[in-house]
Amino acid sequence: MPRTPQDWPYQEKVIGWAARPISAMFAPGNFQAGYRPAWWTTNEDRSNAKPPVDLFCNASNYCDPSKIGDNDSNDPGLGACTLDSGDSDTNPHWLHCWWHEKITKEQWKDCERLAECGNGVHRFSTSYGEQADAGSYPPNCSTTNLPTNALVVDDLPDGTTPAGVGANRGCGAVKSSGTFGFTFVPWDTQMDLTNDGTDNPTTVTTYPGKIDTHQIGAGYGNHFWFTHTRSPESYPANANRMKVTATWKLNAPLTNTTRQAKIFAHIPDHGAQTSNAVYRIQTPAGEEEVAISQTANESNKWVDLGAYDFGDQIPEVRLDNFNGGSGSADIAFDALAFVPGTYNGQKMTGSMTVDPTAPDPAPIEPGEDISDSLFPEVSGSSAGTAKAAPTATTMSTASCSTVSLSITRKRTNSCLHDELWVNHYTNSTPDGNASFDYYNTIYLDAASDEFSQVTTVRLKSMSGVMNTVNLDYQAKCRGYCNITSVTWDGSKIFKKGDTIQRTITTRFKWTPSGATKNTITPYWYFGGTANTTPIANPLEVEKAKLDIRCDSEVPNAGTGCVFSGYDPTYVMNSKRFPGAAAHIDMMWRKTNIDWGNRNGGKPLTYLGNKMSVDGSGKIQSDRNRQLICSRQWKTYPDTGLFSDMWTLEAGATRTDSKSCDEFAFANSFQSAGNSAGPNPVTYSGKECIQTYVRRNADDTMTLHLRPDAPAPTWKEPCGRSSMSNWQNTQSMRPFGDFIKEQRLMEDDDYWLDLAGFTAPTP
Known about the structure:
The chain has 762 residues and is mainly beta.
């Protein structure tokens, strides 16, 4: 059968659906055949329920079966029915190729002897009693989950009793403290409203959105409306014709002291499929948008939309169906509740004392253990030969040790402690050896193109036939560098019983290739003689994690060299800037946004002046800042200001203001404004956790959730806080010096430390 039943003729629908009924919902989650199908003795007979297409077509009814096909039509000469001349006005038999002959069992099927016909199933007999209502999707008649002073604005006028309410279903008459209404977009179209046979176009104004606006007896108070989410159409005149906007409005302004109210939206248990319902709260300061997922809350529940200041303005909320949808998802319009009160937002910290003159915290630069296996094993020996065999053992120590074998690095220095063995063989049999303690330190300078290595070697033991070792040790470099000097302090010859430590100082200089950045690889050569026998297999060894980057690119930092693989740590002065520190600390503790946190997180990545990946032509950090802190952003009225403390810190007059603080930082790859990052927002910083920093009467500060935003799920991709510009900007002011001191370049990782900050318990 064709798969477009809407195009089937009536007879074909009856026969086809008798064989295979459409699916229908009998109860929530229970889909069955829409009506009982007929039965046949075989599946083949069921499939043959449809007669051959030419069975009812021959000369007796003026039908030409040869013209039955996919492209036939009712136009003269193009269809099976030959009664096709003229039209219904000029030909009384036009297209009346009606069948009136008998069909024999030989022509189609034998319903008696072969039982090839279907048999109907009568679900309801004439004496079947009326079924009781199933009670599917029972309404929510209660406001027990709301504060007792809630003012509910339902989606029907006050006093209305929804249709379909019986003794076992319904909530009685609507109780509403306001008004609800729809706004539909008018659409003009040309129609011929006459029937005189001539074309008489008339402009008719219609409201297409009405045809896709429906009501259901369920949800709060046993009634809600729904339509489908859509996007503007491409043709300008039709762009918004399917837009439907609902408006809830209290009867009068609020009378409580603060003129604040928290808003809750009731989401029914079905017909609410959109994941992006954008409620628009009308306030004296402008429109506030709150996007929630109706489908995630589709359970007859009240969803918190936040608390807002309405002043003397009547509280009003709007919701429309234009949210980028394709017409498939439902969006529901059920009741709203306004709860007057005083809302400061949930405290995320206790009171934090500010010390505007707190000294800068000490740098934090833990050594990074990169021991692994430094030197390869050396194989092969012959009579009268010697080999050098430096070996390394992986250690967990994080700093240079005179006991443990280890390799550690920081941003501008490294320390290697290892053992060097020189073995003597006779006829492939070891018969003597010497072991040495070997220390090497690389000193880089972030403000110079010169660096040095200081190596110390001390004989630990010499045994067997081994009497002397003339050690040829050289510190070298590969890449764009020169050795400018080598100084040996002490003899290169070691004898049994020798206890004197030798020190070798090697100085290097970066010799740029013409580029402004090069990589230099240090490596070491071990050779010489043992008992005057040349070491047959001298070693050259290196460590990739000790590659050095020299550059002249970092702005205002001249030339310098660092171990770029080491991630430095920016230490925030949390005693001076506890508000900024508290925001970061909250994100680390409460969410998965733990970038920069050395205690279980991953490092932040510095963007520098990298261009935006979204084709906007902006620098990525500027684009991040725009999306998170400019788009859909307003400062919170109760954000605390600290001009006096800023003035004290700066030693000059400063005027504080309210600003937007974001985490992860705008100049990090992990910013939620970066569409190529690990946790991007879809549109704006409205999707972040919203907080603000309040100044208390005792001059302490506390971090609060913003009351004019939905309660966080703690799965948000970012944090956005309304806070003092002093706290926000000055907490990161030293970062510019940090960039120069650490020679931080584009795509370099770094850690963030809050200098021992612990948020006080709220």
